């Protein structure tokens, strides 16, 4: 799309944004992929519309405040990126734009403190755990609370388990085949500690030594995608310091959102001195399912114990795995590698579940509609188990599936594999 | 072409309104009163988004209405009449001729929320509101063992209203016909806000609305014919060392008696653009790739037909690959559907032609256009529904560094090649504003008068999508 974005004045991130706008031919192929367009049916809440809005704001033809409501409704799910034949890097555009525009935003005191709380709590597992417990007590009150407060409660699982710190080094079992670094994640440690425990067990069982480097922290994705760029940069640099890519075969994440965040580091640091370091780092980042799938493809994956009865698993594609990282086949292949397990596809599978980072907090109504739609679609498969590879989707889907009265277990892909190895499936 | 129009085709920031935000005009206020705030967009941030289609940016509308029923459309038309402003209908804005881009500020009626769809399996019909996405019709019909054949490459996005307004075609149209062939009845709102329900008898008024690009009335609902899908489909891809040879193969196959269900061609630049996007292993070195489906009730016949095509391709110097599985066939078709947008990877802007020529003239036309492109400074690519002689030569350019006048000139020369060989200006994308100026080359003055007469009869004040299809007339002030 032709534009007059003042790239010079905007620096490295300006280049990122102008390139994305340039690439869009306004063909509209992305419209059917977009969850907010599906719900609202108007152009401003579509990818193509948002690109135009960002262009207009960057060119100075439209006040930021006018465009903001529509940009805020974007889930950042990147379904539009998968759908776009012209290769428009929409994800980079919206991330860079949010970083650029946030300092100019005028927000109410309430909104500011809510954002502050989220940004502080998410990267601090202990704090998050405490907050989650407090929230737990408030949950029964949800129906009488205002929507703005109900959203955060929806995010919480039925029970908040105790934190389980992971060992710094988990040795490989049997012959050592590899050595990886692992990003433990933040909210996830508090909400679903078993994801990490299962990950360590499965990797060890496959002869992989797992190191959890000191000094690592939050991937920075939440801060970055809500526009808190300075905050994000601190986190990004801390991780670049903590992980030396040369020491490991891979840097693994088991949360789709975090993995996507780590892979974005070169874009975040585009045009800055750390860009080279970020590239070396990102080149080693893999989702846990990608890594295990390479073992599977090489015939090196320890064979899982067959399930005790034929099981169907509805696999939910997390946006940050499927769209942002392009990882679709690997988790399915891993699940299918368990004898007795078959994988079912979810209708409207590409439509976001509405969790998307802090979306439940910022846009509770749309998030709720999407969550309900996703749960309905998943339940229509009548699968025995529901699998996903992302903590956000996990809590969102669990909460909506329960609300629709179903007891179907919701598990991380790696938990299912772990159960199979333990003969518990 | 007027300089003003050039500005619109090449400069996205043309004609920005001075005022920002708020229901600042009387029209928006009237509409909001009549329809409620949910269905009316009046903020600048909202309106800005309704000034483009897939090819062109136009003027920012004064207001946008998102109707949910025919009554809403009526109310919107009445309000804009009262305000004396023009009306542009809009579906998914995937149009490639500037049709849905307003040329002057007015009202845009966007049909994307009119999505009611009912399937009547016993009558093999679907009733679809204008905003129903094309693909949704087939998806809904499938459980009943039926399909809706018209399949423009944009079928995941485009709407039935837009399809009928453009009389859209697709790969299937060689054997199964275009959108208009599937319309049994039509409901439309005229320029006065009157509702009409038409069938295809007496004067075929429905036929007149089909392909009229929103210049004669606003389509609100259509009754569409559905058919049972063919039992068997087989797919073949052939590639050729020269574009003309590909066209020859097509003529040869059809002369031999084959009636493929789809016959599509793309040249080397297209193949490579798609390959960059999808990585399917398409032959990057071939000058032309031909994609063919044969289908039918009887597998032997389907195979025989595919063999006829295969022989024709080989005889014209092509190399043939048959799709081994349905999946492989589906991948190949995905490649073809992605051509047009994938071209955006090469240059940010393009001028999209949509000519149709007699099949016998295809080899010459394809070669002549290739030669025109080679002699020009621009990247010129070709693809299209070659079975119908419908070609899409596209001139790719960068408006910041390349001369838009020269692009337009080349497009004009391509159009003249088509006309010289007995062809027409538009197969399916419409005339819109992009090819309006070429109409005088294609249509004789008496016919032009007849067209103007029709326009005057249905839209006396020229309120509906002004500036589209019919070239400006000296004597007439307003369309
Ligand atoms: C990548 C790509 C591939 C394409 N491939 C094909 C193809 O294979 N075949 C093909 O034929 N076209 C193709 N097109 C062009 C376009 O998709 C079609 O013309 C389509 O029918 C337009 O539908 P739409 O809903 O997007 O309409 P719009 O673009 O919104 O509108 C098109 C025209 O119809 C008018 N209109 C829209 N709705 C109504 C209504 N309800 N009542 C009256 N007038 C209305 C508008 O004013 C405008 O003049 C392609 C486009 C793209 C971007
Ligand atoms: S599909 Fe890509 S090129 Fe087309 S409108 Fe969407 S972002 Fe732009
Ligand atoms: S990221 Fe998701 S929500 Fe945002 S525009 Fe793209 S498809 Fe829509």
TrEMBL record, chain A:
SUPFAM superfamilies: 4Fe-4S ferredoxins. Pfam families: CCG, Fer4_8. Its cofactor is [4Fe-4S] cluster. Component of a complex that catalyzes the oxidation of glycolate to glyoxylate. This is Glycolate oxidase iron-sulfur subunit. It comes from the Bacteria. It catalyses: (R)-lactate + A = pyruvate + AH2; glycolate + A = glyoxylate + AH2.
Automatic annotation (TrEMBL), chain B:
Keywords: FAD, Flavoprotein, Oxidoreductase. SUPFAM superfamilies: FAD-binding/transporter-associated domain-like, FAD-linked oxidases, C-terminal domain. The keyword Flavoprotein applies. It holds the Pfam family FAD-oxidase_C. Its cofactor is FAD. The keyword Oxidoreductase applies. Gene3D superfamilies: 3.30.465.10, 3.30.70.2190, 3.30.70.2740, Uridine Diphospho-n-acetylenolpyruvylglucosamine Reductase, domain 2 (3.30.43.10), Vanillyl-alcohol Oxidase, Chain A, domain 4 (1.10.45.10). Residues 1-14 have a biased composition (Polar residues). Residues 57-229 form the FAD-binding PCMH-type domain. Residues 1-22 are annotated as: Disordered. PANTHER family: GLYCOLATE OXIDASE SUBUNIT GLCD. This is 2-hydroxy-acid oxidase. It comes from Deinococcus sedimenti.
């Amino acid at each position: 799309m032709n534009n007059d974005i003042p790239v010079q004045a905007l620096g490295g991130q300006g280049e990122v944004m102008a390139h994305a706008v340039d690439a869009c031919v306004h063909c509209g192929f992305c419209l059917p992929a977009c969850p907010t367009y599906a719900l609202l049916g108007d152009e401003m809440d579509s990818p193509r519309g948002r690109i135009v809005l960002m262009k207009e704001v960057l060119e100075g033809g439209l006040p930021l405040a006018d465009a903001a409501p529509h940009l805020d409704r974007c889930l950042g799910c990147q379904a539009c990126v998968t759908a776009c034949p012209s290769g428009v890097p929409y994800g980079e555009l919206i991330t860079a734009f949010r970083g650029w525009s946030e300092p100019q935003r005028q927000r109410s005191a309430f909104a500011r403190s809510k954002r502050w709380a989220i940004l502080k709590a998410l990267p601090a597992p202990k704090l998050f755990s405490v907050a989650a417990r407090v929230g737990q007590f408030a949950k029964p009150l949800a129906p009488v609370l205002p929507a703005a407060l109900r959203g955060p409660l929806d995010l919480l699982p039925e029970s908040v388990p105790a934190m389980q710190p992971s060992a710094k080094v988990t040795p490989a079992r049997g012959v050592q085949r590899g050595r990886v670094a692992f990003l433990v994640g933040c909210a996830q440690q508090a909400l679903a500690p078993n994801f990490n425990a299962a990950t360590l067990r499965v990797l060890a069982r496959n002869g992989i030594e797992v190191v959890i480097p000191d000094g690592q922290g939050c991937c920075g994705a939440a801060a970055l995608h809500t526009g808190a760029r300075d905050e994000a940069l601190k986190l990004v640099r801390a991780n670049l310091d903590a992980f030396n890519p040369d020491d490991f075969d891979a840097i693994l994440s088991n949360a789709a959102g975090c993995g996507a965040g780590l892979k974005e580091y070169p874009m975040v640091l585009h045009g800055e001195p750390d860009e080279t370091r970020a590239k070396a780092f990102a080149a080693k980042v893999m989702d846990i399912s990608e890594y295990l799938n390479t073992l599977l493809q090489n015939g090196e994956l320890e064979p899982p114990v067959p399930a005790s009865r034929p099981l169907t698993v509805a696999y939910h594609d997390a946006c940050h795995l499927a769209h942002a990282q392009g990882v679709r086949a690997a988790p399915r292949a891993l699940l299918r590698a368990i004898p007795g397990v078959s994988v079912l596809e979810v209708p409207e599978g590409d439509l976001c579940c509405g969790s998307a980072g802090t979306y439940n907090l910022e846009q509770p109504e749309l998030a709720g509609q999407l969550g309900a739609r996703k749960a309905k679609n998943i339940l229509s498969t009548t699968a025995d188990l529901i699998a996903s590879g992302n903590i956000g989707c996990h809590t969102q889907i669990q909460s909506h599936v329960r609300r629709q009265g179903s007891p179907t277990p919701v598990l991380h892909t790696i938990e299912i594999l772990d159960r199979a190895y333990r003969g518990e499936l | 072409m007027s300089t003003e129009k050039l500005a619109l085709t090449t400069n996205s920031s043309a004609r920005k309104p001075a005022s920002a935000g708020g229901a600042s005009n009387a029209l928006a206020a009237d509409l909001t009163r009549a329809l409620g705030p949910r269905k009316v967009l009046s903020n600048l941030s909202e309106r800005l988004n309704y000034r483009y289609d897939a090819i062109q940016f136009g003027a920012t509308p004064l207001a946008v209405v998102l109707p949910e029923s025919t009554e809403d459309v009526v109310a919107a038309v009445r309000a804009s009449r009262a305000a004396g402003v023009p009306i542009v209908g809009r579906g998914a804005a995937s149009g490639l001729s500037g049709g849905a881009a307003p040329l002057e500020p007015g009202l845009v009626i966007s049909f994307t929320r009119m999505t009611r769809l009912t399937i009547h399996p016993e009558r093999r019909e679907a009733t679809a509101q204008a905003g129903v996405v094309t693909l949704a019709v087939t998806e809904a019909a499938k459980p009943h063992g039926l399909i809706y054949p018209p399949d423009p490459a944009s079928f995941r996005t485009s709407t039935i209203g837009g399809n009928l307004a453009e009389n859209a075609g697709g790969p299937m149209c060689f054997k199964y016909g275009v959108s208009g062939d599937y319309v049994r009845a039509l409901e439309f709102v005229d320029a006065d806000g009157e509702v009409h329900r038409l069938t295809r008898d007496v004067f075929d008024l429905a036929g007149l609305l089909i392909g009229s690009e929103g210049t004669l009335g606003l389509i609100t609902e259509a009754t569409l014919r559905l058919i049972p899908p063919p039992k068997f489909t087989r797919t073949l891809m052939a590639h050729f060392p020269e574009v003309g040879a590909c066209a020859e193969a097509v003529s040869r196959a059809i002369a031999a008696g084959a009636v493929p269900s789809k016959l599509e061609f793309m040249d080397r630049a297209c193949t490579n653009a798609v390959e960059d996007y999808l990585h399917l292993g398409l032959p990057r070195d071939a000058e032309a790739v031909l994609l063919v489906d044969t289908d039918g009730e009887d597998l032997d016949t389907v195979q025989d037909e595919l063999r006829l095509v295969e022989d024709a391709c080989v005889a014209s110097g092509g190399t043939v690959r048959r799709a081994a599985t349905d999946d492989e066939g589906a991948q190949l078709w995905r490649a073809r559907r992605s051509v047009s947008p994938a071209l955006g990877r090469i240059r940010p802007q393009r001028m999209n032609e949509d000519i149709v020529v007699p099949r016998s003239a295809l080899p010459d036309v394809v070669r002549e256009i290739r030669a025109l492109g080679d002699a020009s400074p621009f990247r010129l690519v070709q693809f299209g529904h070659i079975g119908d002689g419908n070609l899409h030569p596209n001139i790719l350019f960068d408006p910041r560094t390349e001369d838009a006048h020269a692009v337009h000139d080349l497009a004009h020369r391509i159009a003249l090649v088509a006309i010289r060989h007995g062809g027409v200006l538009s197969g399916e994308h419409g005339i819109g504003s992009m090819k309006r100026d070429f109409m005088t080359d294609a249509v004789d003055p008496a016919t032009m008068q007849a067209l103007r007469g029709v326009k005057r009869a249905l839209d006396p004040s020229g309120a509906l999508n002004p500036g589209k299809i019919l070239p400006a007339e000296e004597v007439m002030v307003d369309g």
